[in-house]
Amino acid sequence: MRAALTILFVLLSPLAAPAHVVVLPAESQAGGWERYTVLVPTEKASPTVRVEVRLPKGMDVVAVEAKPGWEGRYEPFPIGAARVEWKGGRIPEGEFVSFEFLAWNPKTPSDLSWQATQWYEDGSNDRWGGAGTDDHHASRTTLKPGKGSQGGLHRHAPTVPAKP
Fold this sequence. Notes:
By secondary structure, this protein is mainly β. The chain has one helix at residues 2-12; strands at 22-24, 27-29, 33-41, 48-54, 60-64, 71-75, 83-91, 96-104, 110-120, 125-128, 139-144. It is globular.
């Protein structure tokens, strides 16, 4: 219910106009895992056909949502430019689609800034965050100090191949 109200608030807020790619939640736990939601509205006459979100340093993606009609993927390298991306579908003008991914947050409390690029069927794109105008600001998530491990997901030690 809380997530639905947050999404509704973001979409109806005058601060969201023009609509832009939003990453939720606004707060999470440092060192814990989170289910992130990427909201992608289309306000142009041309449908959205691809969205890419650049991940903050220290974030480790566990899984990317499989969305019917869309190809989702995670590219962990190069470090500092890791990203999640969905392409192949269409979001018509006046509609939005939400995409999700599971990730381990960086261990240190901080403010995460989400940079995103939205591509349209006509070949144009909008970049959200980074250098640019104020109406294309980045979505943000504040990482609060952790409270220990969260149930359900466990961070596994990296697998080291056995020596022959």
